[in-house]
């Protein structure tokens, strides 16, 4: 066997050409404890807070507690196959989530992975789930309305683009219905919606997604779900993932609505993690930084300055109360962070007033600047009318005789309550809301029986649509009321038709 020097030298040259002297150094630790979605690892001296760590079984975790002798890690995913003694290594990356247009219409988990069975999401963009909120000089005042399509909210507690408006109430008082109706009403409004479902049943989330599909709202909506069966770390990061996805659109000059349903469950998940990580408990066993948990999330919502593209992110955080107690720890925290709250009253809901908005306890700190001019003109006295009605209603229970003025106030109040009722998944365009509220505040409904009010409303809209469409177009395009003579004429004309048809119906039923 002869040795061929040329071949050997060419092989050596090839090896030299491909030689890389770069050393890959992985900082690796050892798991010393694992259980309940929490791990502790020894040896990760340089780990950063919030850094993504990789376990030997392929699962990821997030560094939370950086202590002198070990690191407390929350595990994002399967923790049942992780054992003490397993290796865990640093990735050098902060926890991030995929973002971009490809996410629209999809249902994802808080890690950005699709859970709707529609295949992979093709996007290369990512954003860190934790990001600094825009500074004071990067913002502008909230002045553009976000129409929910619900009369009780758009008239009494208006929401503006870039605002944080808390929706608070007991369970089963219609909180989620308000959010779903608001999302449905954003069709053709140049708004991207993100619905973050935290700690809900998977069947409930499925129903909400089906409702959104039925009304064509999934065309501009992203659903982030961390269901009740998921580990606490996923419930904790879900709202931040939703905010990160929304920020991508906001910083590109678009308008976003993010619904966090609900933050009580996120706070409970964070309490669980904190207690497992041996952090000192405070009031109601929540950790000391539970206020910061929500403030750093909600402050990311803003109306950006024109220099940054003028995009906005509006937040609708939900908080669930126990027996209407809004003075509990989490409700008071979130009330103090947000720009107002919509309080849903259990008693109102069960008495048939839906949406069950309590006008006395609900407030918008943005107020009239988040309403169009026409709405401001017709809704100005509405809150006072309702407040005085509730007061008089309590007073009349004593059975005293009432003078004509008090009787008139009570009659107007009853009709106001009736007008503010609305069916589920039937949001109203702002021009229709303005028209019916104009009819109410100008006394056109005072002679209509309370039981016929909602029938009168729907038939009035049909009458104006058929005979005076320019009135609706005027409100929609100019944001102002049309000439009062024109509006009065249209309403009076319909009122005569309504009165005559109703009297015929009542005579027929009496004869029968």
UniProtKB/TrEMBL annotation:
Which EC class heads this enzyme's classification? translocase
Any idea which positions bind ATP? 169-176
Q: Which domain of life is it from?
A: Bacteria
Instruction: Quote the subcellular location field of this record.
Output: Cell membrane; Membrane
Citing just one GO molecular function, the answer is:
proton-transporting ATP synthase activity, rotational mechanism
Tell me which residues make up the ATPase F1/V1/A1 complex alpha/beta subunit nucleotide-binding domain: 149-364
Site (Required for activity) found at 362
GO cellular component annotations of the record: plasma membrane; proton-transporting ATP synthase complex
- Name the predominant localization: membrane
InterPro entries linked to this entry: ATP_synth_asu-like_sf, ATP_synth_asu_C, ATP_synth_asu_C_sf, ATP_synth_F1_a_nt-bd_dom, ATP_synth_F1_asu, ATPase_a/bsu_AS, ATPase_F1/V1/A1_a/bsu_N, ATPase_F1/V1/A1_a/bsu_N_sf
Q: Which UniProt keywords apply?
A: ATP synthesis, ATP-binding, Cell membrane, CF(1), Hydrogen ion transport, Ion transport, Membrane, Nucleotide-binding, Translocase, Transport
- Reaction(s) catalysed by this chain's protein: ATP + H2O + 4 H(+)(in) = ADP + phosphate + 5 H(+)(out)
Which topology term describes how it sits in the membrane? Peripheral membrane protein
Q: What is its EC number?
A: 7.1.2.2
Q: What does this protein do?
A: Produces ATP from ADP in the presence of a proton gradient across the membrane. The alpha chain is a regulatory subunit.
Record-stated family = Belongs to the ATPase alpha/beta chains family.
Protein name in UniProt: ATP synthase subunit alpha
Q: Which organism is it from?
A: Vagococcus fessus
């Amino acid at each position: 066997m002869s040795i061929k020097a040329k071949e050997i030298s060419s092989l050596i040259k090839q090896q030299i050409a491909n030689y890389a002297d770069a050393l890959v150094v992985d900082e690796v630790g050892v798991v010393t404890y694992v259980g309940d979605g929490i791990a502790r690892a020894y040896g990760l001296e340089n780990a950063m807070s919030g850094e993504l760590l990789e376990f030997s079984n392929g699962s990821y975790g997030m560094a939370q507690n950086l202590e002198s002798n070990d690191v407390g890690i929350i595990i994002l995913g399967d923790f049942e196959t992780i054992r003490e003694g397993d290796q865990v290594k640093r990735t050098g990356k902060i926890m991030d989530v995929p973002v971009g247009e490809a996410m629209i219409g999809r249902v994802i988990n808080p890690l950005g992975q699709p859970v709707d069975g529609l295949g992979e999401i093709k996007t290369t963009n990512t954003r860190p789930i934790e990001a600094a909120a825009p500074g004071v000089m990067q913002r502008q005042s909230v002045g553009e309305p976000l129409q929910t399509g619900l009369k009780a909210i758009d008239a009494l507690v208006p929401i503006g683009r870039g605002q944080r408006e808390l929706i608070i109430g007991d369970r089963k008082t219609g909180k989620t219905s308000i959010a779903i109706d608001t999302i449905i009403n954003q069709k053709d409004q140049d708004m991207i919606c993100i619905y973050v479902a935290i700690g809900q049943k998977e069947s409930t989330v499925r129903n909400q997604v089906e409702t959104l599909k039925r009304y064509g709202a999934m065309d501009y909506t992203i659903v982030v779900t961390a269901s009740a069966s998921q580990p606490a770390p996923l419930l904790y990061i879900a709202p931040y993932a939703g905010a990160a996805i929304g920020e991508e659109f906001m910083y590109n000059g678009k308008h976003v609505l993010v619904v966090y349903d609900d933050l009580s469950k996120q706070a409970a998940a964070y309490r669980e993690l904190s207690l497992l990580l041996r952090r000192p408990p405070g009031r109601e066993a929540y950790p000391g930084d539970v206020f910061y948990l929500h403030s750093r999330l909600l402050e990311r919502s803003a109306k950006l300055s024109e220099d940054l593209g003028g995009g906005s992110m509006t937040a609708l955080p939900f908080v669930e109360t126990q027996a209407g107690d809004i003075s509990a720890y989490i409700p008071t925290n979130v009330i103090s962070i947000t720009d107002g709250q919509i309080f849903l009253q259990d008693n109102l809901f069960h008495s048939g007033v839906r949406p069950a908005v309590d006008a006395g306890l609900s407030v918008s700190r943005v107020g009239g600047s988040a309403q169009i001019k026409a709405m401001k003109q017709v809704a100005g006295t509405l809150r006072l009318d309702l407040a005085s009605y509730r007061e008089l209603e309590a007073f009349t229970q004593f059975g005293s005789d009432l003078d004509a003025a008090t009787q008139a106030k009570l009659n107007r109040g009853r009709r106001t309550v009736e007008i503010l009722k609305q069916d589920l998944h039937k949001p109203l365009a702002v021009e229709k809301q303005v028209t019916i509220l104009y009819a109410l505040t100008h006394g056109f409904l005072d002679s209509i029986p309370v039981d016929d009010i909602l029938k009168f409303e729907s038939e009035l809209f049909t009458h104006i649509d058929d005979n005076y469409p320019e009135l609706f177009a005027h409100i929609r395009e100019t944001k102002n009321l049309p000439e009062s003579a024109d509006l009065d004429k249209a309403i009076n004309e319909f009122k005569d038709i309504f009165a005559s048809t109703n009297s015929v119906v009542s005579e027929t039923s009496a004869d029968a």
